Amino acid sequence: MRTDSCWGFQSASRILGGPTVEHADPEANQLIELIEDFDLNSTLQPGTITYEEGERQSTIDLCLVTLGLVDRLIRSEVDREIDHDSDHLPVVTELDMSVIQLKKEIGRNWKALDEKVFDDMLRLELPSLQRPRTKATLDRYVREIVTAIQKAAEEATPIRRPSVKSRAGWNEECSKAVAEAKRLKRIYSRCHSEDTWEAYRVARNKKGRVIKKALRKGHQEKVEKASESPESL
């Protein structure tokens, strides 16, 4: 079972804090790996100031969410109206936690269809050859054939197990972006050079954008489908 999370924390490492930080936090790479492993996405707009000390400003406080909450985000921003006695500005994150009940559709792994089982089951279920003479008998005959095909397919095709890649909206572009980010991450783990880090950073950011866009589109399509009629809810 997949659990979605919303994480808030502070970080002032050189990697996350920019070139003005004198010493890199030794746990910075662990944080980057954590973000990569859990596919976390920042809810704040790039460049959001979350820390002020005199004339000094920086983005120190972060709010990250897992993929399942990306399309649930209503707002995530600094709210100066909240009383606080700190140099860290209060960050308000609001999520849409309403639940839309959709009809559960069983997905099947069509690539694993057993052709022999399908053929045997189809021969067993197909109605005998007929020559319908009326529209009513023709319609009934067609329904019987369709039912036979469906039963044979269900018998010969295993049910697909849900995974993050089976989420609505996930596509081949998402899979390629994840694979490329992981590949460059392995290279950076071996070399630890500025070039390999930059290549990995660019791929990681692209992966986040690609997945966020795809899942948002998938969520919108599900909502539109659910709103078409009461039966879809």
Automatic annotation (TrEMBL):
<dbReference type="Pfam" id="PF14529">
    <property type="entry name" value="Exo_endo_phos_2"/>
</dbReference>
<dbReference type="InterPro" id="IPR036691">
    <property type="entry name" value="Endo/exonu/phosph_ase_sf"/>
</dbReference>
<feature type="region of interest" description="Disordered">
    <location>
        <begin position="214"/>
        <end position="233"/>
    </location>
</feature>
<feature type="domain" description="Endonuclease/exonuclease/phosphatase">
    <location>
        <begin position="24"/>
        <end position="91"/>
    </location>
</feature>
<protein>
    <recommendedName>
        <fullName>Endonuclease/exonuclease/phosphatase domain-containing protein</fullName>
    </recommendedName>
</protein>
<dbReference type="InterPro" id="IPR005135">
    <property type="entry name" value="Endo/exonuclease/phosphatase"/>
</dbReference>
<feature type="compositionally biased region" description="Basic and acidic residues">
    <location>
        <begin position="218"/>
        <end position="233"/>
    </location>
</feature>
<dbReference type="GO" id="GO:0003824">
    <property type="term" value="F:catalytic activity"/>
</dbReference>
